[in-house]
Amino acid sequence: MNDSIERILFTEEEIKEATAKVASEISRDYKDAEGTTVLLCILKGSLVFCSDLMRKLDFPTELEFMKVSSYGSGTISSGQLNITLDISRKDLSDINIIIVEDIIDTGITLSRIHDMLVKRGAKSVKTVALLNNPARRGTPYEPDYSGLFMPNEFVVGYGLDYNEKFRDLPYIGVLKPEIYKR
Ligand code: IMP
Ligand code: MG
To answer: Mutual orientation of helices 47-54 and 12-30 as an angle, nearest 10°?
Structure first.
């Protein structure tokens, strides 16, 4: 295990099972959907989850990316949401969008992106989060699909970072406090 990790919260196997679970829920709900379905991967944290999820869905999807920043640095959310990379498509009227997030925490990111895409005229907008940290929710928003509910900890791995590090870990773990108190 990585020296900076205090303990593993979710193993590779648990992540795989949770991904398969949400993939089968999504596949069931979208099997008869009309139009094009786009997975909207929220960079950078959702890259790993999105990549695994899209290969588990049993219907065809297309891929878009959006990059937003709500965290300046470290472990505390700033409450602000800036779009630093936007999707390239203009006409969303025939597009079912599934926003793919690594984690829902305060709910600001998912609720704001969701509302924005509805306003832009998407045919439908749903959200999936691999991790759900309900204790931190400031905005009353729940994703349509949640992989794993977690205790109120700051976690890294499987795409999630602390100051850009630890995204490459194959599991999700809790950082040793001395790493972020330094
Ligand atoms: P929200 O807008 O507060 O729901 O936060 C969502 C975003 O904050 C995620 O996309 C992550 O980038 C980041 N985030 C929230 N909690 C954690 C965590 O425990 N570890 C790493 N990143 C996190
Ligand atoms: Mg993120």
So the answer is: 60
CB neighbours of residue 122 within 10 Å: 21
Give pTM, 2 decimals.
0.94
Nearest CA to ligand 1 atom 19: 154
- Domain extent listing, the chain: 13-151
Q: What is the pLDDT of residues 30-56, one digit of tens each?
A: 989 999 999 999 999 999 999 999 999
Is the separation of the CB atoms in 106 and 142 below 8 Å?
no
CATH class of 13-151: alpha beta
Q: Looking at the CA of residue 106, tell me the nearest atom of ligand 1.
A: 3
For residues 96 and 124, the answer to whether their CB atoms sit within 8 Å is yes
